[in-house]
Design a protein that fits this description.
single chain; 30 strands; Glycerol-3-phosphate (1)-acyltransferase; seven-stranded mixed beta sheet; nine-stranded mixed beta sheet; alpha/beta; GMP Synthetase, Chain A, domain 3; 39% helix
Length: 790
Amino acid sequence: MKTLSELLPEFRRLGSREAMRWVRPYRTETVTYEQLYGRIGACASFLDSQGLGRGSRLMIWAENRPEWAALFWACVARGVQVVPVDFRFSEDLAARIRKESGARLIADDAVLDSIAARAPASDFSIIRSDPDDIVEILYTSGTTGEPKGIVHRHRHLCANLEPFEREIQRYRKWARPFQPIRILDLLPLSHMFGQSMGLFIPVFLEGAVAFTSELHPGVILRATRANRISVIAAAPRVLEVLQQEVRRQFRLPPPPRARGIAGVAARWWKYRRVHSGLGWKFWAFVVGGARLDPQLEEFWSNLGFAVIQGYGLTEASPVVAVNHPLSAKRGSLGTPVPGQEVRIAPDGEILVRGASIAGAADDEGWLHTGDLGELDAEGRLYFRGRKKDMIVTSEGLNVIPEDVEAVLNRLPGVRDSAVVSIDDQVHAAFILQDPNARAEDIEPLVKEANERLETHQRIRRWSVWPNSDFPRTASTLKVRRGEVAEIIRKGPPEATWTPPPDPAGMSSLERVELLAELEARHGIEIDEEAFSRATTVEDLKRFASRPVEAQAIAEVSHWPMTFPARLFRRIFQRAVAAPLFQRYLPLTATGLENLASVAPPVIFAANHTSHLDTPAVFTALPPFWRARIAPAMGTEHFRPMFEPSRFPANQVWNCRFQYMLARLLYNAYPLPQDAAGVRRALAYTADLVQRGYCPLVFPEGRRSPDGRLERFRPGVGMMAVRLNVPVVPLYIDGLFDVFPTGRSWPTRGPVHVAIGPPLTFADDHRYEDAARALEEAVARLRASNCELRI
């Protein structure tokens, strides 16, 4: 392979195979290679319309998504030079990069949204590229602050990718039973490691890549399981927070002593709950971008997962050394990839030379990496630290911060640490697991650490870091030691946060979005129940400063969607429920023709006057739709089951029986009306939609006490907008007369279900406006039904 353009025909060959997944909070989009090729054509048309051709420069400043990849490949096809910029960079920094690079246009998320709306175009021309043509100029902030641009040409990238292409081809036939092999790429595509694992390696594997914008550990674990991910590509920091989440969710016994094949089987069996939690298809982490703590590698290896470390730099395009998945060695960064030479300078610095080097090299072609390392007798590379971060004590002795941090992070009660030089002395900043710990609690930890450290490594000064994490680089999440040291010298500022002015007046959906904001700040999954009790400004301030981490709880089970449950439900509905309902309450339905214009999944939104509303909808719909309905039921009715300690045992068991019966016979699922638990319920609703089911919701939130239509809550608007599926309005008439609130048994009487035309809403539609539109649609059905009755 001489140029990246040679990969484009592969997209057409792979055709209907899955290429990408975009996992969003309440929606997952799947793209095949054929569809991706069509989107590349649409992006090529966009570039033509903007007058961008060979030699022009385009800056992509957006989060990972299929359109990002499509635009990149369109630039390759057209000879446009890409300037990828991390979407977390500030507007000021992005503007400076655009000016320095000479990019004619910025493609941000809004531009990518407009591109996504374009019609696919599979017939587009690919210009002939030369190996010396520029593909991209990659800017990286590293750990020093001001970004620098590295020019990458086709020859640099292809030289680095060629060894991987050859090796993958050797094993491709053995990988077929495991297809689609999905890689969850948690690094930005503006980073070379992120591009390798997100744009190139999946094509060689004939597999797929998944992107997600949510990076807190609970979401990553659920996304890995739900999307049947095979490999996670991430920075070491992600493995660290995932480790904390796994320890929170699962009880982990000591690892088995057996080694070899027997040891692998023993670990899989002993930690089967962890493997089930991540999904049985998941087997490996590919880690790079920063140093991986040996204990962290040991933790995941002991659980039975492969940890594949590599070493690379943006200037090396990017991989220098990597462990082979079948012969990885713990603690090692692997052996240099073919075409790369590595040697260690007298001062311990890693030097690299090869055809993929795009950065500035010395007269002999060696790139000075600024990293410290060692090579063993087998040629394996080991990372020892950053040369510029090395602390030189007043005695002239060298201290590598990572070595000290490895000891500190093993101490009980220490969540993380950063070691920096203050006045040529070793200073340790601690983040403790207990946010209420006092400064004097650190002293015994420092004493214990110093007993384990060499004399010159010992901590002379220490401090408690006031925030939930240290400042880090945007791409690889390395600690910015210079910034940490500067803040310590000046005295750390108190963390500030401005709460909303009226917490008590916030809707449950506004609380969901505020909860997500706090989780992003603290990097943990927050307890919704504890958060829901914060109802004043002062409550929220206290909670924001010391949030309560969520306890591991059982998620809503999917057993009602198994084949036996679906078969039993179909027989019950057709042979028992529908005939019995029609016999006792004669039902008619109008508007069935409106279902012809849509296909599952959709959301059904109905008025709510009776406990029989759900059976009425099931009876009114044809069997095709009936088999795909999933009614939402209020958790308030099942409170004895969710809070058993507050109710008598017989009431708890009766409630459990009713709950299980509703799940089995109607595929119902719990949807709370209060703030606590809303987010999990919305996530389950999104999962239902992803599986092709159609949630049935009652947006009034309760049964009408007088039969009139009440205001729709904005939750249905949030579902419609975030899930991006049509919403079919329903109006149920007659049930209030035969079985209203307060009556214990229904009387006989006619029932009518009116089905309206489906409504769709754009991503930027306000939730409240969407709810109002649906309420008006149901009101129109009610008015039409009243006219028919007259």
